[in-house]
Amino acid sequence: MRRPLVAGNWKMHGSRESVRELLQGLLDGVSEGPTEVAVCPTFVHLAQALEACDGSALAVGAQDCSHLQSGACTGDIAPAMLADLGCDWVILGHSERRAFHAESDELISSKLVAAVEAGLKPILCVGETREQREAGDAETVVAGQLRGALQGIEIPANLVVAYEPVWAIGTGLTATPEQAQAMHGFIRGELAAVGVADASQTRLLYGGSVKPGNAAELFAQPDIDGALVGGAALVAADFLAIVAAAA
């Protein structure tokens, strides 16, 4: 039985005060239960979030990390530093990192190895653009991203994969439950093909304009185990409604 996971990706949002208010709202509504819940603030708000969430059911993760544990890498954050701070999770390969920072599959694979080495649990993001989907290349693109990140490495047992169709991120568009399930089922098959020991137990998340109004229908699909939530993660009531739907 795969335990649902709902993780909030706050992206480049937040001030000390807004983070305090958001976390207070979440902590008032999150308790130990069937759904695992995490938030991923900016780097500058990680310490604040970790202090606020200490001893609670709300885990904290980072939005990215370096592929190195130390070195002359100005502006980068080592996975070992995140682990030392107390982070549980790290998001890797998000489409915005791929697009805005030209991150390659090879680099993402190196980050995955380094994150696991530091003791972090990785959320690996994959997804196609609208042009790629309309051209009929969605599965080819996603398979290439999965294989590029996972082939040739020891695949961690705690790997989580988030399918985020780029055309549905922050656009208000959402894959239909049938579209999302089809891709999640495809991803599970690809994981088995690249050597995941028990792909049937790997948690797969959907991300792409997940909201309280569509979460339950998405989570009802057999291969969707939760969500990586963007905009709705910045509103406590919305995020908690998504968490409740996952249960």
Automatic annotation (TrEMBL):
Spell out the molecular function terms from Gene Ontology.
triose-phosphate isomerase activity
What's the gene? tpiA
Which Gene Ontology CC terms are recorded?
cytosol
Is the keyword Cell membrane assigned to this protein? no
Q: Which residues cross the membrane?
A: none
Its recorded reaction(s) are: D-glyceraldehyde 3-phosphate = dihydroxyacetone phosphate
**Annotated binding of substrate, by residue:** N9, W10, K11, G170, S209, G230, G231
EC number(s) reported in the record: 5.3.1.1
Among Pfam families, the record links this protein to: TIM
| Gene3D superfamilies noted in UniProt | Aldolase class I
Active site (catalytic residues): H94, E164
The record lists the organism as: Mangrovimicrobium sediminis
Which protein family is named in the record? Belongs to the triosephosphate isomerase family.
What is annotated about its quaternary structure and interactions? Homodimer.
The record's subcellular location field reads:
Cytoplasm
Summary of the function given for this chain in its UniProt record:
Involved in the gluconeogenesis. Catalyzes stereospecifically the conversion of dihydroxyacetone phosphate (DHAP) to D-glyceraldehyde-3-phosphate (G3P).
* Major localization listed first in the record, in broad terms: cytoplasm
- Pathway linked to the protein: Carbohydrate degradation; glycolysis; D-glyceraldehyde 3-phosphate from glycerone phosphate: step 1/1; Carbohydrate metabolism; erythritol degradation; Carbohydrate biosynthesis; gluconeogenesis
Q: What class of enzyme is it?
A: isomerase
Q: What SUPFAM superfamilies does this protein's entry cite?
A: Triosephosphate isomerase (TIM)
Per the record, the domain of life is Bacteria
Keywords attached to this entry = Cytoplasm, Gluconeogenesis, Glycolysis, Isomerase
Q: What is this protein called?
A: Triosephosphate isomerase
GO terms in the biological process aspect are: gluconeogenesis; glyceraldehyde-3-phosphate biosynthetic process; glycerol catabolic process; glycolytic process
What NCBIfam families does this protein map onto? tim (TIGR00419)
Name the InterPro entries on file: Aldolase_TIM (IPR013785), TIM_sf (IPR035990), TrioseP_Isoase_bac/euk (IPR022896), Triosephosphate_isomerase (IPR000652), Triosephosphate_isomerase_AS (IPR020861)
